[in-house]
Amino acid sequence: MCCSARVRSQSRRQCRHSVDQTEFLDVMEIEKCIQLFKWFKLENFFLLLFILLIVPLVILNFAEMSSEEKLVSVDFEVFGRVQGVFFRKYTEQQAKRLGLRGWCMNTLQDTVKGVIEGNPSKIGEMKQWLQKTGSPQSRIDKAVFTNEKDISKFSYDSFKIKR
Prior knowledge:
With 163 residues, the protein is an alpha+beta fold.
């Protein structure tokens, strides 16, 4: 039975007594109904807010935490025209852009080698960049990745060029 129906039925029952008392009961019942409605409305608002905003954030946070907690380390060596073309500088910029740590350096064999550490998906992006993109003036013949392993913590504070 809804509030207005309850008020009407009580009004009819109270009609035998006095009009003033009936009006007073109607106002009291209506006020109770309004307070109850406000309480449910407010409770539902917070419940809906919790479900729509908080729960997805918590789920996303756990998903991000699990992927962020996993760290990978990979050694790399890039062959081709990679020295004298700012390859190391561009490699450093790309690694920092992706939030990776490690180092790179020129070798006596005219290659660039190094280590990258970080989130597996970002490592994948960096591998692709080292194989296909490089610096604007470079020519990449091949990139070799070795010693890929899971690590529990970073070994380096940032990505640096070794000289």
